[in-house]
Amino acid sequence: MLKKILKWTGRALLVIVLLALGYYTKAYITVGNRKSKVYAVKPVRLHIPRDSASIAVGKRLVTIKGCTDCHGSDLGGKVLFEQKGMGRLVARNLTRGKGGISKDFDTDDWVRAIRHGLQEDGTPLLYMPSGGFSKLSEADLTAVIAYCEQVPPVDRVNPPSEIGVGATILTDLGELELFEAEKIDHNAAPPLAIREGVTADFGKYVSQICTGCHKPDMKGTPGEGGTPNISSSGKSAQWTDEQFFQTLRTGKRPDGTELKAPMPWQMTAAFSDTEMRALRVYLKSI
Length: 286
Ligand code: HEC
Ligand code: HEC
What we know:
By secondary structure, this protein is mainly α. It has two domains: 1-194, no CATH class; 195-286, Orthogonal Bundle (Cytochrome Bc1 Complex, Chain D, domain 2), CATH 1.10.760. It has helices at residues 2-36, 52-64, 67-71, 107-116, 138-149, 165-172, 200-206, 211-214, 241-250, 265-269, 273-285; strands spanning 78-83, 87-91, 162-163. α1 crosses α6 (165-172), α2 (52-64) packs across α5 and α7 (200-206) packs across α11 (273-285).
């Protein structure tokens, strides 16, 4: 009798293992296909300014758009995340030093990466948040490239990004968004320039970089490890304007608690007064 039961438990276990392997194989193949998909995107031809004023604008943008948060203040890149079984995410070295961008990396390649989230061969970059950059105005995008192209070379050979077993499963389940290129309208024509001012329109423009985490409706994602609702129905809408600005400048909420990672408050701390006020107007309007 016992022998029989053991035999059947063993078989049930075998079925479960085979089902799990079947699921993983399916996830591995689908994620692999998404990773190797070639997007036939032809970046618009942009003229990159070389004057010091544009480079100065670009230097500020590289901070307020979060590039330096991930790629480092010297743009030499760094490992953002690494865990056995999960994988590794690495923001690449964007300079012309050892381990940096390839020798023939040109303006088209910058546009393809920043605006479209794609590598030189047309396959998607992993985790690079281009969804928040795809609508950058031409004036801002060219200033960013102007600055990046002239930063001093940094010799830093970073290991490559890797999608491990855990990350493959989470990506397949939609819990992890690795391929920003999938979210982007590659045929959209972003504005040439944007009019700055304390308006909801400009606030919406500034908030594009928040959408990857707080979602396009700014209502965040519920649950453990999620992001808070920062729209008019969120807690932060109850703060005074001054408390809101103070929180995004110091990383401390009105009640004294800290804004924990990955909330990039060093990025928002560099926002100008106009950018902060416009952002506030927009967030309260939605
Ligand atoms: C949330 C982190 C993050 C932010 C913010 C970010 N990047 Fe990236 N970026 C990455 C990662 C990760 C990769 C590498 C992806 C890979 O290995 O597939 C990458 C890749 C790139 C590449 C491709 C380089 C190459 O060798 O092909 C460029 C160019 C780039 N980023 C520029 C920028 C610029 C400019 C900004 C700001 C406007 C920016 N990134 C903001 C994470 C980030
Ligand atoms: C990389 C993901 C990420 C990005 C990008 C991001 N945030 Fe956040 N944000 C978070 C997380 C996570 C928290 C919660 C932090 C905590 O638990 O302390 C947060 C918290 C906040 C809070 C506090 C809300 C509350 O109710 O306590 C505000 C306000 C906020 N973010 C505004 C912004 C704005 C504005 C932007 C864009 C300019 C932005 N965030 C971009 C992840 C992000």
